[in-house]
């Protein structure tokens, strides 16, 4: 019988880059291996602005969660494709505004699992849980999330940079639809992903895909916008990551618009 720690160690695949670890490297983190930093440097050599893009997406998460917990009054969050813990994780952002917020994180990266305890430092009024699951298994995600969240009340589903991990053959729009269909009116979807509108980025992602344990699929802004089908978009709609409700007191970095994002509500 395989010990759980041995199973996690086997899943780490330290000989091949993993998306969460490469992303961690690009954000300046330390939770990565030499193979991940090497892949990150290859990406930066081909598309030097990629680290700035990673920071912009992280800032979109902060602005979206502040909107959801504040203006929209959402108190439950289902964060799929969590990534490695960093500053201002979803539960910290939400519980700063509403301490009673309940958050379920979902990821299937083994290193994220190792660090899951850092994600579970909830306020005493709220709750946090971590689910080791793949976005391709929405039924299991919903069943596990229901142990912490009340799925009869509005939930904010956040999916940042995760749909690019799903190929067209795996029907990414159906995965989003299955998840949102299980949530009640008043629930929101916050989603962002990389676009295929920049040749240098497309080249960098192609190089990454050639050596990584998982591939990334860039899509057109129109394809990404289609993931919000059946929902009512919150202003300003589907826009570049830097353009979604930017902070008035903080100028965004000047970088290529290679990712789009949006927030929508289920009526």
TrEMBL record:
DNA-binding among keywords: no
Alphabetized Pfam families for the sequence: Methyltransf_19 (PF04672)
KW Oxidoreductase (keyword) present: no
GO BP annotations listed: methylation
Keywords annotated in UniProt: Methyltransferase, Transferase
Record GO terms (molecular function): methyltransferase activity
Protein name: SAM-dependent methyltransferase
Organism whose genome encodes this protein: Streptomyces hirsutus
């Amino acid at each position: 019988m395989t010990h759980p720690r041995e199973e996690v160690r086997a899943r780490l695949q330290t000989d091949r880059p993993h998306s969460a670890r490469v992303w961690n490297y690009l954000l300046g983190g330390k939770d990565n291996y030499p193979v991940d930093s090497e892949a990150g440097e290859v990406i930066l050599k081909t598309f030097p602005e990629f680290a700035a893009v990673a920071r912009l997406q992280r800032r979109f998460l902060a602005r979206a969660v502040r909107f959801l917990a504040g203006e929209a009054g959402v108190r439950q969050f289902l964060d799929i494709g969590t990534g490695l813990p960093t500053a201002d994780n979803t539960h910290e952002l939400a519980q700063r505004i509403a301490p009673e917020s309940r958050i379920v994180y979902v990821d299937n990266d083994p290193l994220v699992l190792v660090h899951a305890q850092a994600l579970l430092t909830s306020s005493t009024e709220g709750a946090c849980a971590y689910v080791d699951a793949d976005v391709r298994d929405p039924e299991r995600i919903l069943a596990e999330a229901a142990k912490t969240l009340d799925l009869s009340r509005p939930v904010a589903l956040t999916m940042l940079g995760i749909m690019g991990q799903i190929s067209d053959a795996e029907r990414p729009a159906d995965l989003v639809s299955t998840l949102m269909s299980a949530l009640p009116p008043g629930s929101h979807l916050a989603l962002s992903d990389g676009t295929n509108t920049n040749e240098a980025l497309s080249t960098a992602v192609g190089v990454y895909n050639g050596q990584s344990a998982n591939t990334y699929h860039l899509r057109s802004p129109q394809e990404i916008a289609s993931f919000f089908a059946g929902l009512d978009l919150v202003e300003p709609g589907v826009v570049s990551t830097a353009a979604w409700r930017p902070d008035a007191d903080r100028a965004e970095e000047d970088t290529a618009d290679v990712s789009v994002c949006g927030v929508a509500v289920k009526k």
